[in-house]
Amino acid sequence: MSRELLVTGGAGFIGSNFVHHLVARTDARVTVLDKLTYAGNPASLAGMPEDRVRLAQGDIADAALVEELVAPMTGEDDAIVHYAAESHNDNSLSDPSPFLQTNLIGTYTLLEAARRHGTRLHHISTDEVYGDLELDDPERFTEATPYNPSSPYSSTKAGSDLLVRAWVRSFGVRATISNCSNNYGPRQHVEKFIPRQITNVIDGVRPRLYGAGLNVRDWIHADDHSSAVLTILERGALGETYLIGADGEQNNKQVVEMILRLMGEDPDAYDHVVDRPGHDLRYAIDPTRMRTELGWEPAYRDFESGLAATIDWYRGNEAWWRPQKAATEAKYATTGH
Ligand code: NAD
Ligand code: TDX
Question: What is the tens place of the pLDDT at every residue in 166-184?
Fold first, then answer.
């Protein structure tokens, strides 16, 4: 019998990418549990076969609903793959409350269901739990780096990781954790840096760079994140944490200039705007463990060509992003970003 997976947050950017990946590479049957907040979009699951993927709209913090979905998952290989989260740092600075509810209480609710039923759980987290690095720091983040989150978003993700670790140790829950660097690719919400700038340029609006733009992010294509998560599900050791990255460090200024150049515009045609409070300077992942212990390798090795393909996707899929664009920019206008 094929494995059953409960993918939380599967109508968001990275969770939906994982569902596409599963359908193409495995015979798994998938239930997506997603609240369909402003960040969730059922159109991201368009084309998925109905006999393999079903969408349950609901909240991961709804214990009765989670119980109903997890109880029948009795196969040894069945698993919860937990992507659902409030995911945007800027939103967490305006209103932290949904971040505490979803990222902490939601994760707790899933852990309790996994504990009751002995279900495997893989928890998706972020490199932001480690805080930030200096630009010239020779060390990158590893599985041993101490937690030091900066924002309401990253502190609630850090808290969710610690809950998973405690449920492993105290209750023997069969769980793994992955902390990934910044993702890019199709179907990312237009609030995030890369799609915001691409869609601004499509609209004839100048890209907006926070502060001096020297902050560094370690970009990985979402397809590579998905292949890494599937690798951990198949070969990861229970109780362990894996860091996922693809050696993709770029500063924000370089990324904006690359977008403008790839879109046929003057690479200097952007504006510096007010910086993000508490803005992390640099993230960088050392992915050695994924490569040496699990034999995983990223497929996208050239950021510029991955970015060009992402630009093509936004050009060709305006119907997917257009409905969110005006409201997103109206929200940014209230903070000067
Ligand atoms: P996203 O905001 O695009 O998607 C999040 C999804 O979760 C949405 O579909 C939303 O409707 C759903 N959701 C929110 N609250 C919910 C709730 N209470 N119950 C059920 N569903 C709910 O986010 P993303 O960028 O796809 O990130 C997915 C995961 O990956 C998050 O856990 C995030 O912390 C992690 N992550 C993201 C990145 C990145 O670069 N975007 C990097 C590393 C890790
Ligand atoms: O308009 C912008 N201009 C700008 O300069 C926006 C939206 C962002 N930025 C900067 C801030 C960051 O240095 O670009 C960088 C990337 O910003 P975001 O896309 O907001 O991502 P970040 O804050 O780095 O967090 C992302 O990566 C880690 C995801 O949103 C998180 O969910 C993930 O955990």
Answer: 999 999 999 999 999 999 9
The radius of gyration computed from the CA coordinates of the chain, to the nearest angstrom, equals 19
**C-alpha to C-alpha distance for 206 and 10, rounded to whole angstroms:** 32
Report the chain's mean pLDDT, rounded to a whole number. 98
User: What average pLDDT does this structure show over 28-48?
Assistant: 98
Residue of 13, 89, 133, 150 with the most ligand 2 atoms within 8 Å of its CB, for mutation: 89
Architecture of the domain defined by 4-183+221-244? 3-Layer(aba) Sandwich (3.40)
Contacts of 75 (CB under 8 A, 6+ apart): 1, 3, 4
pLDDT digits (tens, 9 = 90+) for 105-157: 999 999 999 999 999 999 999 999 999 999 999 999 999 999 999 999 999 99
- Domain boundaries defined on the chain: 4-183+221-244
* CA atoms of 155 and 25, how far apart (whole Å): 34
Helices in 172-279 by DSSP H: which ranges?
193-202, 222-235, 252-262
How far apart (Å, rounded) are the C-alpha atoms in residues 204 and 190?
Answer: 15
For residue 210, report the distance from its CA to the centre of ligand 2, in Å. 10
Alpha helices in 79-221 (DSSP H): 89-94, 97-99, 107-117, 152-171, 193-202
Dmax over CA atoms of the chain, in Å, equals 58
Summarised one tens digit per residue, pLDDT across range 180-227 is 999 999 999 999 999 999 999 999 999 999 999 999 999 999 999 999
Residues marked active site are found at: 127-128, 153
Residue 51, classified by CB atoms within 10 Å of its CB into exposed (0-12), middle (13-18) or buried (19+), is: exposed
From residue 125, alpha-carbon distances to 86, 142, 149, 161, 321 in Å are 12, 14, 12, 7, 25
> Is any ligand 2 atom within 6 A of the Cβ of residue 196?
yes
